[in-house]
Design a protein that fits this description.
The complex is a heterotrimer. Chain B is an alpha/beta fold. Chain B has a six-stranded mixed β-sheet, with helices on both faces. Chain C has a single domain, classed as MetI-like (MetI-like fold, Orthogonal Bundle). Classes of the chains: A mainly alpha, B alpha/beta, C mainly alpha.
Amino acid sequence: MGLDFSVIPPFYGTLALGVLWTIAITAASAVLSFFGGILLAVVALYGPLLVRLPFRFVAWLFMGTPLLLQLFLIYFGLAQIGVDLPAFVAGVIGLGFHYAVYNSELIQTAMVAVDKGQMEAARTLGLSRRQALMRVVVPQAVRDVLPPIGNNMIALLKDSALVSVIGVSELTLSAQLAIGRTYRPFEFYAAAAVLYYVINLGMEAVLRGFEKRNRLSR
Amino acid sequence: MTQTHPFVEIRHAQKSYGKLEVLKDISLTVERGQIVAIIGPSGSGKSTLLRAINDLDPLTAGEVWLDGLQVNKSLPHRQYEKHINEMRQQIGMVFQHFNLFPHLTVRENVTMAPKLLKKITDKEADTLAEEQLDHVGMLERIDYYPSQLSGGQKQRVAIARALAMKPKLMLFDEATSALDPELVEEVNLVMKKLAEEHMTMIIVTHEMDFAASVCDRVIFMDKGLVVEEGPPELVFKNPTQERTQAFLRKHLEGAK
Amino acid sequence: MDVELILKVYPYFLKAAVITVELSVLTTILGLICGALGTTARLSRFAIVRFLGAAYVSLFRGTPALIQLFLLYFGGPQIGIQLDAFSAGVIGLGLNIGAYMTETMRGAIISVDEGQGEAARTLGLSRAQSFRKVVLPQAMRLMIRPLGVNINAQIKGTALVSAISVVELTYTAQRYIGSTYKPFEMFFLAGILYLAIITITGKGVAYLDRRARLQ
């Protein structure tokens, strides 16, 4: 069986929809992982001990196990305790939380490295500890780790392919759908690979743009 | 009540880290509009005393009062936080290393706290920023980031940031020590201007000339104690204590 | 937590963990080889070879590992590559991690070469001599820790081969979640084993790193 790329055009619509869903799930998960990462970092550093310890444990668990396994846990685990989520939502939670843990590690390191004088200056102006954290310390820490957070988001795009296994009809599953009809795996996986590659390039360009804009404020 | 009280009063301030006593029973008062310099060798406790006034370094024992209110009042944690944040809004502080917020522009540095704490509108905030920056001669750099400023310019912005909260009292913690010599004067000029406007100021400094020319009173501290205090002409020209004499001799020699 | 169930199924998880370890070891070895080749290509004197190296890195880092795996396993037969699932897993993941390792190795070499390589060449060493005697030994030391990060990611990455039905840990966990409806217990079991593998590997890498730094 040779290669025949003329099987692809009839499935342009399917693949295009897959691309949109991939972008949607990546964007939603990236947003969740960004703000989740900030929240986790603040709690891990400043939360009460009773909250901090379980958080550290869960972070350790999520950094030491495969994302795919976590997706199964979230999808089937939540269903078991009676929370029946659409696959898309489960996928966003799984991807978002997984990368939130990684982002949180980056942000924590950066928060600790923010000069102590920054907190002091904010407090002497009359800001509360929380205000000082959210207005002064966190923005600086996040700004300092923007490039590695960007790298995490690019990794997230590629890991979004994993949510196909819990039935989110993103690009990978769209390709599988087309393969189910045509029995042409090589052509469609190759097509999916090209599309991922293009999205990847686009995302890198956007992130580099962000970083450039951020350069002055340091 | 018309009972008169000192504007700033420190009563029996003590501070220790473990066994190390940094402040040993210090009491002093500052009147409204007075400008007081605190001098002394490093490790004398002068910065610690200054930082105790707004409770940045809490005292181990003793009281700090500002305009009839106790700054370091003993309160349950949550209430204390609210109280101290209100007190600190009335006490401006300027640091040796400026501590400007690098992620904010000059304008945002000045307006962040007033916007957040006094709920002023964006328009009022802009007017305030322009006013305060004009006052320190930094209006032209209003939309710059701190990283684009020289040390002296940063410190002037830091002063404007503190003044934007309309404090009753200004604390200066070696505000010119980290500056290159040629940049010291521009900051000193701003501080002189404040002095002429009768801002109450407590200034920890190494610059004897500046202290002599601007301050109403000089306090010499050593080893956690006030050794000598008085008008600058007395403390600098005719110190009575041997430790003061030794310090001044060394310091004036070092300056030459 | 259903302890009885855990006690009943854990032998299957242990067996699956052995497969995960095998996959990890073989993939790491292949990844290191691909990384070394990729790095050599990226630093070649010939523009065409440099381009091929860069294309390898860019393509494999720019697309999902899962797609690469599917392309090889399901699409391979169409172009005459017939592999069993385990081999396809090792080759697919090895090529993928090799691209990341290429960047790690190249980064270490460049950072050493900047100062040291120049110094060696001013002493009269040829480019090849200075690379072998001066740059490479130092770069090897520098790359242990970041390669450890790659290996850590790659161990977790072996979970992907469950999608082509290799009976490793994640596949086993998934199957038992399906048959027992006990996702937490199964996650817990598989999770502990992954953490054990990753922790031991991490300790090994740290040991190598310490030794290399002492020299």
